C-alpha cells in the first residue's frame, strides 16, 4: 500500500489531526511532521491480513442487519473500484440491497 503517499497528500493540519485522532495517541501535542510519521508507523496494523479477516468476519456475522448490509456495500464498492474494476453505482447498490442476507458469511480469501 502507498500509505505514505496518501499521508503526505493530506491537505491541511486540521484534516491530518482529524484522521490521526482515531489512530495516534496524544496526537494533539505532535507537529505536522510528527503526525505524518506516527500515521505512517501505525498504518500497517490496519491492513494486516489477519486483522482484515477478523474484522470482515465480525461485520458479516454481525447481529445488526444494517451492519451486514452496509459492510457488504462498502466492501463491494472498494473492491470493485480497486485497479479500475468498476461497477455502476446504481447496479452495485441494487445488487446488495436485493440480495438475500445470510447469517453466515462466505469465505473471503484475502
Fraction of residues in H or I helices: 55-70%
Mean pLDDT: 76
Strand content: under 5%
Number of domains: 2
Note the gap between the termini: 14 Å
**Radius of gyration computed on alpha carbons:** 17 Å
> Largest beta sheet, briefly?
none
Secondary-structure-based class equals: mainly alpha
**H/E order of the elements?**
HHHHHHH
Name a few traits of the molecule.
110 residues, mainly alpha, 2 domains, disordered C terminus
Write the layout of secondary structure elements.
Elements: H1 3-8, H2 13-23, H3 32-42, H4 44-47, H5 49-60, H6 65-81, H7 89-98
Helix pairs in contact: 2-3, 6-7
Textual characterization of the structure:
The protein is mainly alpha-helical. It folds into two domains: 3-44, no CATH class; 48-98, no CATH class. Helix content is 65%, strand content 0%. It contains seven helices and no strands. It has helices spanning 3-8, 13-23, 32-42, 44-47, 49-60, 65-81, 89-98. Helix 2 runs parallel beside helix 3. The chain is elongated. The two termini are 14 Å apart. The relative contact order is 0.10.
Outline of this structure?
This protein has 110 residues and is an all-alpha fold. It has helices at 3-8, 13-23, 32-42, 44-47, 49-60, 65-81, 89-98.
Amino acid at each position: 500500500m502507498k500509505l505514505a503517499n496518501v499521508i503526505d497528500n493530506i491537505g491541511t493540519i486540521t484534516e491530518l489531526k482529524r484522521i490521526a485522532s482515531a489512530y495516534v495517541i496524544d496526537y494533539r501535542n505532535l507537529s505536522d511532521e510528527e503526525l505524518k510519521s506516527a500515521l505512517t508507523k501505525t498504518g500497517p496494523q490496519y491492513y494486516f491480513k489477519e486483522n482484515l479477516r477478523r474484522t470482515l468476519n465480525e461485520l458479516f456475522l454481525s447481529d445488526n442487519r444494517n451492519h451486514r448490509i452496509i459492510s457488504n456495500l462498502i466492501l463491494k464498492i472498494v473492491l470493485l473500484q480497486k485497479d479500475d474494476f468498476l461497477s455502476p453505482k446504481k447496479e452495485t447498490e441494487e445488487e446488495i440491497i436485493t440480495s438475500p442476507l445470510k447469517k453466515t458469511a462466505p469465505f473471503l480469501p484475502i
